Amino acid sequence: MAGLRSETPLPEAITLHGQSRVLEVGFADGSLFRIPFELMRVFSPSAEVQGHGPGQEVLQTGKREVDVVSLEPVGNYAVKPTFSDGHDSGIFSWDYLYFLGTQQAQLWEDYQRRLQEAGVDRDAPMAAKAGHACGH
What we know:
Layout: E1 11-17, E2 22-27, E3 32-36, H1 37-42, H2 47-50, E4 68-74, E5 78-83, E6 92-93, H3 94-102, H4 104-118
Antiparallel strand pairs: 1-2, 2-3, 4-5, 5-6
């Protein structure tokens, strides 16, 4: 999970747009980001997606139509979305949402490259999970 850095502006407005599948976040510095649910799900900061260290990331597929079914506040520093595929272990700090917003284009490029390198289609269903030691 990204920490809270003093230089990251605080969000002033957060709106879920179910029809267009985006989370709109307005920050105190005037930045306004429309972060697709798919991007949030593919880059979830959870151990299930990120692993427990470099090289342990799990490439996510089949998330184009994913919805956010609920969004819960976590203290004064983050939100925790529950996605329509059942994923609910990612805590999105303000820093991380700002990162997703500012780096969207690069993240999409990285994701497309990783899919191509793995020879996997973006819309392919996720492969069955093998056991995960931490239980997530």
